[in-house]
Amino acid sequence: MLNDNATLVIGAGNYLTSPTGTALPNDLLAPGTPWNPVGHTSLEDIFGITSEGGEATTLGSLQNKSLRTKYSARSETMTFTLMQFDEDALRLFYGANAPTLPNGLIGVPQDPVPTVCAFLTIFVDGENHFAFYAPKAEIYRADDLSISDTESLAGLPLGVKPMVLGTNTWTYAVTPLGGTPATGATAGTPGSFTPPGSATPANLAALADVEATPTTRWTAGQYVILGDTSNANWSGTAWVAGIAS
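Request: output the structure for the sequence above.
Response:
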């Protein structure tokens, strides 16, 4: 099926970390605490995913030499380039155990330890937004540092390895475009839509099947932002345009 709303052209983006196990924020466009941006990142080397493993082994029988195919476990690494050289950024690159020396310098450890945290990447395309979310990941350098000229911003190439958290059967998740509609809206200033990562209703009419929380009249100042950038609130019986008064 052709779905024009499921295409992606990245106009802006952000990379954030949070303590391991932090849930995906309800509003991907305003994640809030405890999510923290890692800093400025490259405009050219925006994002990539490399993988290892996944080799196929063909299993056969005497009667059928290609009866089944078995695949080995696959691990993936997300890559991007961080363009800040402050203490937090340097520890993502050199290791979480990089010490601060008495003179204020950052020491480079002989046995580096990756930073373990939750990781979130959000890409914005007009009214669309697309995210990669890992509740647990290891962050460390993806490549050697190389500064090749005097006209470009220098960068720290980082790799993010999503890990299995607890009893999860997955390492990271992505938000489909043009697919998952919002089923609920929670009051706030602004409020948010549920489930997390769902598509923002395009306009007031698109709120028809969205359940308000709370179901009583929203208090003054509460609203949600719609896909057309207009505001709406719950009157207690229906969705109405604007901010609750």
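Residues 206 and 226 are 9 Å apart (CA to CA).
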